[in-house]
């Protein structure tokens, strides 16, 4: 049975807004209604000071939608609006419709740092995991959100497994290892399950990860983005206040072309680019220590200079970096005194010194 968005809106109109006396749709409280098969999602955007008063409203709205024929699952979220008058669901003139709600902060999270790459497989997840651990080793309260829905790898890299608990059915308890609080789409879907995500599902899932996970008080939440410049990157920057971004690339031209696109996207979305990291830079032989430039060397430094962004570090290509990641203990934690670990620790120090983490 197909559920229409209009039917959902009608059901939501039966719920009164305790503050304005209107119904929650006319009052502009009920927003972002999406229907995916038998699942309905919506948010109630409220004054953060009135969250207690709106708890029962959310429950009533949830029940009204759940009672509709064909609805099997409802996700109703309370979110804090950042404007005095939240936009409503009524049809808008094109000019008004273009005015997006301002990007929101995630409660308790002081800063959000996005780690991106233009191209897949350049080591973005390895870099995210190591920077997260390095920051935790320096005493920062760190979260890591694995938003790489196409290839979630953080559970393996940080050595966590099992489905995260949700004692109240509304919030999700993150997992923790190496001093890092982490949540991954991989933990919601299972390691071997292939996931095909479509735009609206991605948006919903990402928002859910950001807002429903109990991150606690964090100095910084690192978001490990999927490669490229697609829906997830756009949604993150549009909906959430992202304080800075880091772009990871190998020194090869093909990777650099895509990295440039990534930097361009962040600039267009007004997300400060904190710097680039060259990964798989010099190869150091684990037997004899001989150095070789498998993918070239210095390409990222040149590109960073051209684009006028700092080069935060050059991470060598070293067997131990991969083995550490595969074993669930990133190299900074496994071999903190190694040359490879030092690069990550130095990047973490730079981020702290710059007030970015
Ligand atoms: N500096 C390095 N030295 C050795 N191996 C590395 C290094 N960086 C990453 N790797 C290895 O390369 C592989 C790809 O790395 P990773 O998963 O971090 O890349 P990614 O850019 O996040 O990939 P994807 O886009 O598929 O998510 C992994 O097996 C990882 O262990």
From TrEMBL:
Coiled coil: none annotated. It holds the Pfam family FeS_assembly_P. Residues 5-75 form the MIP18 family-like domain. GO terms for biological process: iron-sulfur cluster assembly. It comes from the Bacteria. Keywords: ATP-binding, Hydrolase, Iron, Iron-sulfur, Metal-binding, Nucleotide-binding. CDD domains: Mrp_NBP35. Homodimer. HAMAP family: Mrp_NBP35. Binds and transfers iron-sulfur (Fe-S) clusters to target apoproteins. Can hydrolyze ATP. This is Iron-sulfur cluster carrier protein.
């Amino acid at each position: 049975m197909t559920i229409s968005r209009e039917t959902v809106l009608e059901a939501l109109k039966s719920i009164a807004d305790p503050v304005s006396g209107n119904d929650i749709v006319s009052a502009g409280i009920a927003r972002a209604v999406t229907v995916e098969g038998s699942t309905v999602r919506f948010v109630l955007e409220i004054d953060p000071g009135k969250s207690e008063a709106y708890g029962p409203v959310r429950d009533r709205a949830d029940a009204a939608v759940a009672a509709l024929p064909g609805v099997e699952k409802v996700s109703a979220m309370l979110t804090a609006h950042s404007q005095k008058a939240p936009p409503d669901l009524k049809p808008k003139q094109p000019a008004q419709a273009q005015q997006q709600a301002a990007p929101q902060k995630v409660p308790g999270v002081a800063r959000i740092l996005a780690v991106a790459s233009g191209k897949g497989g350049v080591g973005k997840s390895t870099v995210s995991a190591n920077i997260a651990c390095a920051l935790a080793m320096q005493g920062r309260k760190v979260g890591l959100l694995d938003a790489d829905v196409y290839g979630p790898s953080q559970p393996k890299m940080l050595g966590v497994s099992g489905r995260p608990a949700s004692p109240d059915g509304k919030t999700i308890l993150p997992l923790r290892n190496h001093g890092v609080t982490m949540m991954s789409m991989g933990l919601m879907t299972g390691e071997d399950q292939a996931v095909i995500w479509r735009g609206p599902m991605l948006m919903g899932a990402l928002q859910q990860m950001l807002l429903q996970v109990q991150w606690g008080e964090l100095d910084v939440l690192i978001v490990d983005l999927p490669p490229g410049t697609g829906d997830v990157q756009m949604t993150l920057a549009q909906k959430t206040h992202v304080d800075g971004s880091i772009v990871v690339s190998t020194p090869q031209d093909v990777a650099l072309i895509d990295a440039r696109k990534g930097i361009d996207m962040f600039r267009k979305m007004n997300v400060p680019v904190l710097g680039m990291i060259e990964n798989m830079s010099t190869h150091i032989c684990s037997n004899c220590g001989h150095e070789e430039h498998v993918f070239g060397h210095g390409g990222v430094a040149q590109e960073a200079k051209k684009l006028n962004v700092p080069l935060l570090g050059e991470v060598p290509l070293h067997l131990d970096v991969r083995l550490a990641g595969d074993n669930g203990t990133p190299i900074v934690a496994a071999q903190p005194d190694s040359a490879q670990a030092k690069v990550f620790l130095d990047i973490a120090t730079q981020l702290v010194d710059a007030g970015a983490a």
